[in-house]
Design a protein that fits this description.
Elements: E1 6-10, E2 20-26, H1 31-54, E3 60-68, E4 71-75, E5 78-83, E6 85-93, E7 96-97, E8 100-101, H2 104-120, E9 132-141, H3 144-151, E10 164-169, H4 173-185, H5 188-193, E11 197-208, E12 211-221, H6 228-252, E13 258-263, E14 276-277, E15 289-290, H7 321-339, E16 344-352, E17 364-371
Length: 379
Amino acid sequence: MPDKRIHIQKGTYSVNESSIEVVERKGVGHPDTLVDGIVEDLSLALCREYLDKCGKILHHNVDKAQICGGATEVGFGGGRFTKPIYILLSGRATYEAGGTKFDVTSIALEATKKRLRDVAGGYIEVDDRSQVEIEPNRISKSSKDLVDIFMRNTKVPLANDTSFGVGYAPLSVTERVTLETEQFLNSQEYKRGMPAVGKDIKVMALREDGKLKLTVAVAFIAKHVNSIAQYAEIKEKVRQDIIANTRAVIKKMNLDYDVEVHVNTGDDEKTGSIYLTATGLSCEMGDDGSVGRGNRVNGLITPMRQMSLEAAAGKNPVNHVGKIYTLFSFQLANDIINEFGGDVTECNLMMLSQIGKPITEPKNVNLFLRGQGDADYER
């Protein structure tokens, strides 16, 4: 007997059939992605601490944080901070359980420093307060009602919110190119040959029928650029590399598209107004970042798709359905494509939770499926 909570419909819209598609990815050094990474690392660090000392993950949601951009003076060959980057951490965490105390503040501080070292190591001194100020003391104690839901002795965790997750599969060619362009530019292999390319990279892709147009913002690192002429040379090399990589991705998908790539279109090389940084991060000079403003859990921002605005980063992985259902929706969509690939070519789905109910019992699962011919989707 079919589960009445599961609704299967024939999808009527396909992004692949649209003449226009827009996709965005904010790279690992973009302030929105950077702050997402900080709070997710903090959540993982808290999980490890709770498991080590209590044998179970305790309540926490550290999904509220802000990067306030600093200021730098930059010239060819290097730069210096004139105002530090400020990072404010907030949210909720368990500070004590069963007589065991947890140093949440120190854990938050170290998790933030580690992420900064991983992203901009060698270009930023995380212990130098003239470069970075970290405020970890605004993480408050978890509220009693949410801790109570979290700690109830149930075999299955209870949803801590009424929320929904959205997922889809497979990626379109525009989405695949957008994702792989940033990953290519930020790969260790590419950095070895092009050290001037910083980690703050944003890719905006526009598909117009059979043409892919990429606009890419790259924060170049002043230490590795000695003149405006060298800057222009490096930028053109990056552009050509993106074109070659994009064509390779498209070929791998057995497709054929014209490719157009632009890099740092805001530059005015005649006046010397160029995207040059001391650290490879735009937050060094005023660009801010907030949790949840960047990529969705699949690493992309896709306005042509159904999306959730849920910020998954920093939420606890035990009963926060805003995180769990969002991740599971994408996993389930991919599983459906892999299992029924001959019949189902596209899957979009939404899962809805109900606070206080087992997370394994969603209130509703809604699937929109597209396939070849008249497939029996109920099967």
